[in-house]
Amino acid sequence: MTEYQVVPKPVLTPTVIFAERPERIGARRESMARLGLPAEFFSDGDALAHRLSVDWSVDVVVVDLALASAELLARLVGLGIGGAAPAIVAVADPESADIAGMALSAANVTFLDPEADDAELGEVLDSALASATAGVADRGERDFASISALGREVERIATALAALAASERDDAEGGREVSVAQVRALIKARRARDRYFSAELFSDPAWDMMLDLTAARLEGRSVSVSSLCIAAAVPTTTALRWIRNLCDSGIFERRLDPCDARRALVQLSEPTAQAMMAYLAGLSGAAGV
Known about the structure:
Strand 3 (60-64), helix 3 (70-78) and strand 4 form a beta-alpha-beta unit. This protein has helices at residues 22-35, 45-54, 70-78, 97-100, 118-131, 136-146, 148-172, 180-193, 205-219, 225-232, 236-248, 270-281, and strands at 16-19, 40-42, 60-64, 87-91, 109-112, 223-224, 252-257, 260-268. The longest helix is centred in the middle third of the chain and has 25 residues, at 148-172. Helix content is 52%, strand content 13%. It folds into 2 domains: 16-146, Response regulator (Rossmann fold), CATH 3.40.50.2300; 148-281, Orthogonal Bundle (Arc Repressor Mutant, subunit A). It contains 12 helices and 8 strands. The radius of gyration is 22 Å and the shape is elongated. It is α/β, with parallel strands linked by helices.
């Protein structure tokens, strides 16, 4: 009888590339060594662009958005071998939040805090590597499932806004107007509360951003992604995840800044704006809200 030997399938080593500021490279090397994952490291965006121009067969690119030009980011989120772009882990801080806004609609992008520890880095890379060979639609579904709690909260907000707009539209049309001063008083009261209690205790980035966008609408002012991240009063990467989900659900709308291709602007969708006006018009006062 002929004996056949089963040859195990080779284990492919994932390709992970980092492009981060020189002062962070050493710490990232140590983290990847502890995680047992090999990686390539670059300290500027041009070097990353050259590497990718030679070979796009990359599983994950971890890129500090401060190093990425608008052109490089557009290539990262839109190009790849055989039509499948690599998974992108965007390292975003307040200074790079505007360019992060360009990637909010990309299903292959997740966000990472610059000060992420080994556990958070490992979790993000595991998710990115798991989705590296998936199509964009599949990857989007997996990313949504991984933040299902956030998705459910956004869905709840959308439902509540729709009900509010329907039930209080008559009040809003009854002559009661909403002033910028009223909205600013609400924002000021929320920030004053943070001086006496832990900000995490009352953290509600969706509401803080909705108030800020309402004030901007009344003032006729545009709001950039970086400005909205500040208004959210949470870490930049957390704010970006909220903005992405609120845009995807139709609560917010995003558009490119016509004066600066590196910036994205965010505004309330019209149904959300109507609901906010109805709610604020129905308030008897701002105390405790």
